[in-house]
């Protein structure tokens, strides 16, 4: 079990490291005023999604910094232990000097030895012993005081630094949990609206979100930025009549979905096994589909660019959990799908 002293011994440079956490994510949660484009729960989820990602990065950076400083603390404690051993040696030296003085004087003080000296040589030897004893005693006392003062200062600084880091990490953890709770609530509202649209068989229209400042130099990108692959192309299961016709990307509700390449939106649909879905036709003749969405940010007939946000992931239609179902088709219609993983890889976008 780690001692309480060790927990306190993080070095003072932590206070400088805390500067990287100065940016605090904004609170994007608000009420849906129904004012139209750029507002509402979709925009709130998108903003909270970015805030949650930033908070997670800050918290992770804080945790990593704490790990680094904990290693430094162990080295610092080793140095402090060495100082403690040196102080113990000094204490022993003081005792040894006192015992030697008593032993060499035969029980008489050094001053008395000088007075009782029989010869000049004995007097000189007595003066030399007296000088050496006093000098050694003074040096030992001085080293002892300096070592104890240095030890106390190091422990005080290390304790203050650890407390500052621990407080900041607690603040980051609280902030992260608060944003994630708001995001979860907003995701629930977004999915509720999406389910209502699918049930009615009518999409509620494009929600215009603020697009990220990106400048993709490559013509193709993955449909989501961060993901885990789940069901793959051609896999079997009770959810599909035949085989799975696309690649699933497991992502939370509200995750921004990107156009994998430039093209034109040929279909925005609600209802059916795909739920809310978008189909984009690209210049090379292929089409890509993005299904089980919670919201769309483009309209049918609209031209889109590589990496543009075209929707938000969800779990509409025949879906057992939040994910993006991504297809590559030879035609805009279902039934013409090809395996999207090698298709993307051939265009410089490995997913896995």
Tell me the layout of helices and strands.
Blueprint: H1 4-8, H2 14-17, H3 41-104, H4 110-115, H5 120-200, E1 228-229, E2 247-250, E3 256-258, E4 263-269, E5 276-282, E6 287-296, E7 303-304, E8 309-313, E9 324-329, E10 337-338, H6 340-345
Antiparallel strand pairs: 1-2, 2-9, 3-8, 4-5, 4-7, 5-6, 6-8, 6-9, 9-10
Helix pairs in contact: 3-5
Helical stretch tally:
6
- Major sheet summary line: 10 strands, antiparallel
- The whole-number mean of residue pLDDT values reads 76
Q: Helix content range of the residues, please? A: 40-55%
Q: What is the total tally of β strands?
A: 10
Low-confidence sequence ranges: 1-38
Distance between the termini: 41 Å
Order of helices and strands: HHHHHEEEEEEEEEEH
Characterise this structure.
The two termini are 41 Å apart. Helix 3 runs antiparallel to helix 5. This protein is rod-shaped. It has 6 helices and 10 strands, in the order αααααββββββββββα. It has 352 residues and is of the alpha+beta class. The chain has helices at residues 4-8, 14-17, 41-104, 110-115, 120-200, 340-345, and strands at residues 228-229, 247-250, 256-258, 263-269, 276-282, 287-296, 303-304, 309-313, 324-329, 337-338. A hairpin with a 4-residue loop joins strand 5 and strand 6. Strands 1, 2, 3, 4, 5, 6, 7, 8, 9 and 10 form a 10-stranded antiparallel beta sheet that branches.
């Amino acid at each position: 079990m780690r001692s309480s002293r060790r927990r306190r011994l993080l070095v003072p440079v932590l206070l400088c490291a805390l500067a990287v956490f100065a940016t605090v994510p904004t609170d994007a949660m608000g009420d849906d005023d129904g004012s139209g484009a750029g507002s509402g729960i979709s925009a709130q989820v998108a903003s909270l999604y970015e805030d949650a990602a930033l908070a997670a990065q800050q918290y992770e950076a804080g945790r990593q910094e704490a790990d680094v400083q904990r290693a430094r603390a162990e080295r610092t404690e080793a140095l402090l232990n060495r100082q403690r051993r040196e102080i113990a040696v000094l204490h022993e030296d003081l005792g040894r000097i006192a015992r030697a003085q008593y032993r060499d004087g035969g029980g008489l003080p050094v001053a008395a030895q000088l007075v009782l000296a029989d010869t000049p040589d004995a007097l000189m030897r007595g003066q030399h012993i007296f000088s050496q004893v006093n000098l050694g005693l003074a040096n030992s006392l001085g080293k002892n005081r300096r070592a104890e003062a240095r030890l106390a200062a190091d422990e005080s600084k290390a304790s203050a630094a650890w407390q500052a880091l621990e407080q900041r990490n607690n603040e980051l953890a609280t902030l992260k949990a608060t944003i994630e709770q708001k995001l979860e609530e907003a995701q629930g509202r977004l999915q509720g609206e999406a389910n209502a649209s699918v049930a009615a068989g009518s999409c509620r229209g494009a929600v215009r979100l603020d697009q990220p400042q990106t400048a993709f130099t490559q013509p193709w990108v993955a449909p989501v930025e961060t993901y885990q692959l789940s069901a793959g192309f051609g896999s079997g299961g009770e959810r599909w009549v035949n085989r799975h016709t696309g690649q699933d990307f497991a992502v939370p509700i509200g995750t921004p979905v990107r156009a994998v390449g430039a093209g034109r939106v040929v279909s925005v649909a609600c209802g059916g096994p795909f739920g809310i879905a978008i189909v984009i036709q690209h210049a090379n003749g292929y089409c890509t589909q993005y299904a089980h969405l919670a919201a769309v940010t483009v309209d049918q007939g609209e031209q889109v660019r590589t990496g543009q946000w075209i929707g938000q992931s969800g779990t509409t239609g025949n879906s057992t959990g939040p994910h993006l179902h991504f297809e590559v088709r030879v035609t805009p219609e279902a039934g013409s799908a090809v395996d999207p993983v090698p298709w993307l890889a051939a265009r410089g976008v490995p997913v896995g």
